[in-house]
Amino acid sequence: MPAAAPVKIHYAREAGVEVEEFRRVLVESGLGAIRPVGDAARLATMLANSNVIVTARRDDAQGTLVGVLRGMTDQAWCCYVSDLAVATSAQGLGVGQGLLAEARRQLGPQVSIILVSVPEAVGFYRRAGLEDLPNAFWIRRMR
Ligand SMILES: CC(C)(COP(=O)(O)OP(=O)(O)OC[C@H]1O[C@@H](n2cnc3c(N)ncnc32)[C@H](O)[C@@H]1OP(=O)(O)O)[C@@H](O)C(=O)NCCC(=O)NCCS
To answer: What pLDDT score was predicted for residue 1?
Structure first.
């Protein structure tokens, strides 16, 4: 039996994505459990105020969204990544790493990338070469 063809994924920085496809990827990745996926208006605001949205889309007729990285940058110093999510159907194919690589390529060498990982993804970020920050601080949102 011939080997299955590798899955082809297109990475791009997009001006925006539809709220519904963003919501779907959050849910399908599992990250929806800790994102406001039941509040379309809040998701829309999150997207509208993000100036870094990197997408991973399948090479199919619809360009199905299977992964997204969302963040905010000043384009000159740092970028805070708020979401990185890959749909379960596309996990383990290098898509998460591909989204990070595309974000780094788009942002360039003078911009650092900073994020807060969920405990389950710490190993992924270490594998991707991100450094642990022992001196990071935050104020938790209340809702
Ligand atoms: C974490 C996540 C983004 C990783 O994306 P992915 O496309 O499955 O990961 P990749 O295929 O790019 O993996 C790259 C490497 O990291 C490893 N890896 C992937 N997920 C890992 C994890 N949770 N822990 C440790 N290593 C992991 C892979 O085995 C692979 O290693 P290899 O280079 O030796 O083959 C994805 O699993 C996801 O969306 N999870 C749910 C949401 C989430 O936790 N997001 C992060 C929020 S901070």
So the answer is: 65
Ligand 1 shell residues, CB under 6 Å: 29-31, 84-86, 91-97, 117-118, 120-121, 123-124, 127
Residue closest to 45 by CA, chosen among 19, 68, 66: 19
Q: Does 143 fall in a domain?
A: no
Residue 23: per-residue pLDDT:
98
141 domain residue, yes or no? no
**Domain count of the fold of the chain:** 1
* pLDDT at residue number 47: 98
CATH code, domain carrying 92: 3.40.630.30
Q: Which residues of the chain have pLDDT under 70?
A: 1-2, 4
Question: 1 lies in a domain?
Answer: no
Select from 2, 10, 12, 42 the least CA-distant residue to 105. 12
Ligand 1 atom nearest to 123, measured from its CA: 25
Query: Using one digit for the tens of pLDDT, what is the confidence trace for 52-61?
Result: 999 999 999 9
Identity of the residue numbered 52: V
Q: Candidates 124, 126, 127, 132: which one to mutate for ligand 1, based on the most atoms within 8 Å of Cβ?
A: 124
Alpha-carbon dihedral angle through residues 88, 56, 62, 29, given to the nearest 10 degrees? 20
